[in-house]
Design brief:
The protein has about 650 residues and is mostly helical. The chain has a domain at about 5-220: Orthogonal Bundle (Cyclin A, domain 1). It contains 22 helices and two strands. The two termini are about 65 Å apart. This is Ecotropic viral integration site 5 like. One of its GO terms (molecular function) is small GTPase binding.
Length: about 650
Amino acid sequence: MPVKNQYSELLKMSSPCEKLIRRDIARTYPEHEFFKGQDSLGQEVLFNVMKAYSLVDREVGYCQGSAFIVGLLLMQMPEEEAFCVFVRLMQEYRLRELFKPSMAELGLCIYQFEYMLQEQLPDLNTHFRSQSFHTSMYASSWFLTLFLTTFPLPVATRVFDIFMYEGLEIVFRVGLALLQVNQAELMQLDMEGMSQYFQRVIPHQFDSCPDKLVLKAYQVKYNPKKMKRLEKEYAAMKSKEMEEQIEIKRLRTENRLLKQRIETLEKGQVTRAQEAEENYVIKRELAVVRQQCSSAAEDLQKAQSTIRQLQEQQENPRLTEDFVSHLETELEQSKLRETETLGALREMQDKVLDMEKRNSSLPDENNVAQLQEELKALKVREGQAVASTRELKLQLQELSDTWQAHLARGGRWKESPRKVVLGELQDELMSVRLREAQALAEGRELRQRVVELETQDHIHRNLLNRVEAERAALQEKLQYLAAQNKGLQTQLSESRRKQAEAECKSKEEVMAVRLREADSMAAVAEMRQRIAELEIQREEGRIQGQLNHSDSSQYIRELKDQIEELKAEVRLLKGPPPFEDPLAFDGLSLARHLDEDSLPSSDEELLGVGVGAALQDALYPLSPRDARFFHHLERPAKDSEGSSDSDPDELAAPYSQGLDN
């Protein structure tokens, strides 16, 4: 398979399912020698195959149960071949659909198995239903692991061979065969007993004779056409369920929106109820004002009738002109007060109409404040009306006193006894009417006071309820803010801790990098110094060897003179003492002075230039005879290739090349 070439590359990649695979590996064939023990070879190769497949098929990834199939393959073949076989099984044997996250194929297999159970073993199916023992409780592992977790390996491998030849049909056959063999025992057990029976008894019934299980399985009736029809029915049922789920989701969304709308309306209802309550209070106050106005109008009418009666009695000589003018003045004042009261009543009616129009829409806080101001104005007018009523009562009292004083003056002895009796009766009637008007005014005043007290009590109760609701809301908000503040404080402390850890880690990394750089620089400098020392030693040894083979003492003396001159020139140019021990030439010492700038920056530069070239560039040019001498030194170096000292000669070659240049 082409995927076999990708296996090694897949193992180098990381998979998001690695933790799940590691967790389940220890539970895969725990008693088998190949997989026993943590970090064993079997567990490692099983992890590799499962990880590689999770990267090849990212839709499936990793599913519990598939590790048993891969483990059985690893018992028979290397991991690359096991990986390829597992990929082919997943693609062509319906296993991929079984292991998908939705497990739609597993639901189809359970549906088909239930139909076969109902058709071939109806009594057992009825018993399962009565005990609420669902098919998925015992048959899911059969389809997902192909009986590898149910039977011992000899029986499970026999079933797996038939599966690789025929497909999932053998799982249906073996499952129904097991139920047919154990029908009588299962009919006598309850749900818990059946679960124990499936786990302990059924797996070991065919350990000694797997062929018997295979024969029983192939005696089961299996109709492929009927299975195809069941597959279509299951697909139609699932599509219908999907449509119902979509409809349920839509209805839930609509329900949520309706709940939100209801909550909004309830909030509006609360506001409307508050406004209705305030309107009710205002209407009650308006009714009280109207009642006061009506009582004042009645009092005025009675006063006017009294005045008319007094005017009719003006023919009586007892009434003087001053008294009549006084009564007319009082009448005019009463009419003026009545006019003012009627004007105030009309103004109140206009205000009520305006308030009713504005009440049709929900008022905001500004309108409520305006209504409260108008209510205060109404209370002021009410107080004025009460004050005018009291003034009217005082005026009636004055009229009554005046009338009584007039009657007390006498003068009736000049009239006839009949007129005297009639006048007395009229006086008594007037007194009774005055007392009645006074009593009615006092009763209305008391009723008005009671209404005012009830209204104030109602207003105070509503105000207390609102204050209590606001207090509870503020307390809840305070608790919420305190919890939120606590969470923010926790997050802040955590972020600070992480920041401090990151800063410490970064500082440690910077210090480590700097230490490594310093160590590397020191090592490089030490290596360069060591290479320079070795090169100088090789050059000095070579020159010494050449000088030892020379027989010309005169030539040696001239060379020593030149060396002394070179040493003096070097002292003048460099100044500091030599860093290396001087080399002796028959009692003479040669010292080389080098600073850090004259050292090569790398090994390549050191080998390419050489110490001799550096000295020649820094000092005076050599004479032709000296040049011939150094050419003579170069020839033995070329002739000595292949000898035991070949390495020093090769390293000294750049020195002679520098002299030639």
